[in-house]
Design goal:
single chain; mainly alpha; DNA polymerase, domain 1; globular; UPF0346; YozE_SAM-like_sf; UPF0346 protein J2Z40_001790; YozE_SAM-like
């Protein structure tokens, strides 16, 4: 079965984030309201736009989403 976006994002967690996606992963991990079980772009992007201040730009989410889709197509 395919991984959720959250599960995919967690592989980028890092104790000393070197890039914006690692920082996003660290923050999402700390965000107890993050839609962890979602596979839906619109659900996750709406949540981020309306509920979080830790994401410097939605471009970071879009880049992470593109990596997610590419990985899931390759692995799935």
């Amino acid at each position: 079965m395919a991984k959720t976006f959250y599960h995919h994002l967690m592989k980028y967690r890092h104790p000393s984030p070197k890039d914006s996606i690692s920082q996003f992963a660290n923050n999402a991990y700390e965000d107890h309201g993050f839609p962890k079980t979602s596979y839906n772009y619109h659900e996750i992007s709406s949540y981020l736009e309306l509920n979080v201040s830790y994401l410097e730009s939605m471009t970071v989410f879009d880049e992470a989403w593109e990596q997610y889709i590419t990985t899931e197509k390759r692995d799935g």
